[in-house]
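**Sequence, structure tokens**
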Amino acid sequence: MVHGWGGVQDALTLPFYGPFNRAGFAVMTFDYTGWGKSEGTPRNVINPWHRERDIESALEHLRAQPGIDARRIVLWGTSFGGGHVVKIAARHPELLGEVRAA
């Protein structure tokens, strides 16, 4: 799960964890470097290229987890994170998914 502009992992995406889990999905979320509970400085700076790097790192970490089928990963994003999801998914045709507007 990739959150938006100024979001952190336990804010706007929090209401979706339970429903996704109940639907049978494993859910992974993270804070961008320098945001929320993450380490790194400077703090609270929005850099889209750094965010894409963080998403790629999160994706790599997820693929390495036991019990996760790397062929069944779906990226999901809100707001600014939705734009990142589209761009990252374009680099990874092996990912599952579709784009839907709410």
